[in-house]
Amino acid sequence: MAWYVLYTSAKAEKRVEERLRQSGVETYLPLHQTKRKWSDRVKLVEQPLFSSYIFVKCNEHKLRELLLIYGVSRIVYYLGRPALVRESEIAAVREFLEIARNRDLVTNGDEVDILCGPFKSKSAKVLDVNRKFALLVLDELGAKIYVSLLEINKKHTE
């Protein structure tokens, strides 16, 4: 048995994974947490790392049967054959997600944007971070405020 890649319908990865598991197929759907902003709140949600892709471990002859599962669009091919994914590559994705999950989103000295609340759209500098909140300084006001980590985004400098 080897790892292969299936392409799913848009935003159907989690439902397809459930159907595949119910069919007895070993699957891997790498998920990561990301912030999503609605009009009234910001929330952490789990999203697929690779949109519309799911990894399955099975024999090559069983792949065609998986096309019958609702939500599976096609098998991903490479050089005219179903794309094989090495076990080491799956392990590398798992390791990457583990490292990313345990890493602080922001650290002291980072520049951040405030996503909601009375200081929405303001930039600030992080003075201190604990499990759920960050102490920020708003330079333009000379004020220090505590803001939930869910309500800030780190500015990326490229």
Verbal overview:
There is one protein chain. This protein has 2 domains: 2-101, NusG, N-terminal domain (Alpha-Beta Plaits, 2-Layer Sandwich); 111-154, SH3 type barrels, CATH 2.30.30. The model has no long low-confidence stretch (mean pLDDT 90). It is elongated and about 65 Å long. It starts with a strand and ends with a strand. The strands form 4 sheets. Strands 1, 2, 5, 6 and 9 form a 5-stranded antiparallel sheet that branches. It has a 5-stranded antiparallel sheet with strand order 13-12-11-10-14, with no helix packed on it. A two-stranded antiparallel ribbon has the order 3-4. It contains 3 helices and 14 strands. The protein has 158 residues and is α+β, with helices and mostly antiparallel strands.
Question: What tags apply to this protein structure?
Answer:
5-stranded antiparallel sheet, 14 strands, 158 residues, 18% helix, 2 domains, Alpha-Beta Plaits, SH3 type barrels, alpha+beta, single chain
